[in-house]
Amino acid sequence: SGRSKDHSSDSDGNGAGYATCTLTIRESKISDCVFLLYELDGTLKDADYGKDNTRENYLKAQKAVAAASEYAKALVEKNSLDEVSVISGATITFTEFQEAVDDALSKAKA
Known about the structure:
This protein is of the alpha+beta class and 110 residues long. The chain is 39% helix and 19% strand.
């Protein structure tokens, strides 16, 4: 399991929190990836994330939540972090993903 650094909010009030990544590695390949986003207080970012904000910010927040599972799927399919593409509108999530995966991989090698 790996964890990203804490990230503070961007100018729209989105992106505050951290992420965790749990990797399953079999025969030197990533066979499973669970990537979750959390608010700084430890609350999981899910379908309710951003609901108490404007509709525009809610949609941005939900795009980040959706991107998290897309990033995890792409990592398992490509088996290389370098080959996972950034999703437009979810760059903070991608940074958290990279940090959490790097942390998990470094712990797996230890």
